[in-house]
Design brief:
- The protein is about 40% helix and about 10% strand.
- It is α/β, with parallel strands linked by helices.
- The protein folds into two domains: about 5-50; about 65-330, Rossmann fold (3-Layer(aba) Sandwich).
- Strands 3, 4, 5, 6, 7 and 8 form a six-stranded parallel sheet that branches.
- Strand 1 (about 5) and strand 2 (about 10) form a beta hairpin.
- It is globular.
- The N and C termini lie far apart (about 95 Å).
- Bound molecules: 2-acetamido-2-deoxy-beta-D-glucopyranose (5 copies).
- InterPro entries: Nod_factor_sulfotransferase, P-loop_NTPase.
Length: about 350
């Protein structure tokens, strides 16, 4: 009997056309089914790659956690080590969201002085880690699964884990995806901004000058733990380009407003650097926000700039002229020393 090989099924040449059509039809259906299963699988794979394979320890129950807090806690199961006796200590995910020269470095050292908090620094400062959404997600997954190691990691008994994230480090660019991630993994955002944006501008200028000049024996430092170094760094007074000052302040302000808008439905707390400096109760608010036992927090960092802003810029008179009568006039205020 002669036969044609059609996908491995032998069809006698003599069979009527109807049978051939039926077989073909069945093959088509099978094909579509196989294809659909296959495509389903591939979307599953990419999705779990993007959103991370979470390895939760499901045998843990939340101890002494108020019921409304339960959705916000996690029991990560790190791949690189065992949490040992703290295996079932609940963990909260967070990110400190800020702009350069807004006191967030100092703030982070304060938080890291807590026994149960690990903030891993400015991770997204590396452009590779924020090159695209999947790079971002894989960094976030690693951090929140406690598999990121830095000098700040406390590993086993960490109860709050996160890092410092500047607005211009992919956070605004991928805000939608990041807000989704935050919702999915209950990331708590701690916004810390400087209310005196003029003061921030001055600090940005001084810091970028030092990147070139390297005042400390040829090394650049953005932060310091030494009074002597702070004094050297503070000697330099930048000149502000007053023709673009208002424009830059506007753009800083807009960035902050936009960030708050993008993440308004993410669990967050908003702090101003100046308030934290003046009122240490703000640090209690943060610890409560992260569900941590309240401790006294300390930082070894030394403020680089002291005294009134007028002593920190070369062309203060012009700066005054530029801001008088504008909505930024308050930045010139004597009381705003910070
Ligand atoms: C904080 O860390 C200590 C050990 O360093 C641990 O005994 C304690 O259970 C941790 N607290 C929380 C809330 O995880
Ligand atoms: C995302 O960025 C990383 C790091 O630069 C790169 O290795 C990877 O190929 C990129 N992935 C996509 C999908 O572009
Ligand atoms: C710079 O180097 C000199 C000589 O090595 C040292 O005495 C001084 O303390 C250093 N200054 C700073 C700010 O590191
Ligand atoms: C101030 O900024 C403007 C616009 O960028 C520029 O054209 C001008 O040269 C700058 N002035 C000084 C003194 O740097
Ligand atoms: C200090 O901060 C706490 C907590 O946010 C607040 O309740 C209190 O009013 C603040 N005190 C002053 C003097 O601003």
């Amino acid at each position: 009997m002669e036969a044609r090989d059609l996908a491995g099924i032998k069809i006698p040449k003599s069979s009527p056309l109807v049978i051939k059509m039926v077989v073909l039809f069945i093959l088509m259906i099978c094909g579509i089914y196989v294809l659909s299963v296959f495509t389903n699988q591939t979307t599953d794979i990419t999705e779990s790659n993007l959103l991370g394979v979470k390895l939760f320890d499901e045998s843990c129950v939340a101890p002494n956690v108020e019921e409304e807090e339960i959705p916000y806690i996690h029991f990560p199961k790190p791949q690189t080590f065992s949490r040992e006796e703290c295996r079932c200590n609940p963990v909260r995910n967070f990110a400190i969201v800020s702009m350069q020269r807004s006191g967030s470095g100092w703030f982070e050292t304060l938080l890291n002085s807590h026994t149960n908090l690990s903030s891993n620094g400015e991770l997204m400062g590396s452009s590779e880690r924020r090159a695209n959404v999947s790079a971002l997600y894989s960094t976030l997954d690693k951090v929140y699964n406690l598999d990121w190691f830095s000098s700040a990691s406390k590993n086993e008994c960490t109860a709050a884990v996160g890092f410092k994230w500047m607005l211009n480090q992919g956070l605004m660019k991928y805000h939608e995806e990041i807000a989704n991630y935050c919702k999915r993994y209950d990331v708590h955002l701690i916004f810390i901004f400087r209310s005196n944006l003029l003061s921030r501008r001055i600090s940005v200028l001084a810091n970028s000058y030092d990147k070139e000049a390297k005042l400390l024996n040829g090394t650049h430092k953005s932060h310091t733990h030494s009074l002597e170094e702070a004094e050297i760094l503070a000697r330099f007074k930048p000149t502000i380009n007053t023709s673009v000052l208002i424009q830059s302040l506007n753009s800083d302000k807009r960035a902050i407003m936009r960030a708050l808008e993008y993440f308004k439905s993410t669990r967050h707390i908003l702090l101003y650097y100046e308030d934290v400096v003046k009122n240490r109760t703000k640090l209690v608010d943060v610890q409560k926000f992260l569900g941590l036992p309240v401790q006294e927090l300390r930082s070894g960092q030394v403020k680089i700039h002291k005294g009134h802003l007028s002593q920190r810029v070369e062309n203060w008179e012009n700066v005054q002229k530029a801001l008088k009568g504008t909505s930024y006039e308050a930045f010139l205020d004597k009381d705003l020393r910070l």
